[in-house]
Fold this sequence. Notes:
The protein is mainly alpha-helical. It has helices spanning about 20-30, 35-45, 50-55, 100-120, 145-155, 165-175, 180-190, 195-200, 200-215, and strands at about 60-65, 70, 75-80, 80-85, 95-100.
Amino acid sequence: xxxxxxxxxxxxxxxxxxxxxxxxxxxxxxxxxxxxxxxxxxxxxxxxxxxxxxxxxxxxxxxxxxxxxxxxxxxxxxxxxxxxxxxxxxxxxxxxxxxxxxxxxxxxxxxxxxxxxxxxxxxxxxxxxxxxxxxxxxxxxxxxxxxxxxxxxxxxxxxxxxxxxxxxxxxxxxxxxxxxxxxxxxxxxxxxxxxxxxxxxxxxxxxxxxxxxxxxxxxxxx
Length: 222
């Protein structure tokens, strides 16, 4: 161990939408995307959930009354086994987030849509409790949203970013709003604060600079 050389970890800038790009994306999404994908990506932006956590959500995780969503499982694609429902990435990934009312308005629309599709398709409809499904009710693979997003961005002439980038966007917006490291850690489900700080060090530094400037603006120094 004494002779081991510890490499320097390089933290690259996360590729994600600017606020303006995100708004354009949401506008196009609401106008032209299927309802299921509207709900999926709006929730991704607002919550910062991982793709497996989104795909693994079931309706019993949605508290419409208190506007809280609980993450307690995740859906993974395992080679040779297909889609497998398991525990989330870390113990800290089990969490509950209170989210804006609009999220639950969209989710209620989606729930009603599934009820209509179930009646329309009859025995062709695969009945399960997942929030996000394919066109006939089948389980939505965690990789499916990425493929859909790539085609959607191409068709709408939008810059393509991977679905995981919406997690980074959510974190950056939290930090920009003044959230502490511990708060962002809890929301994202990181097992410790150092992980959050390492990934979003640049965003925290930028936010802290804004706060320092705001404090400084209250005084005059000559």
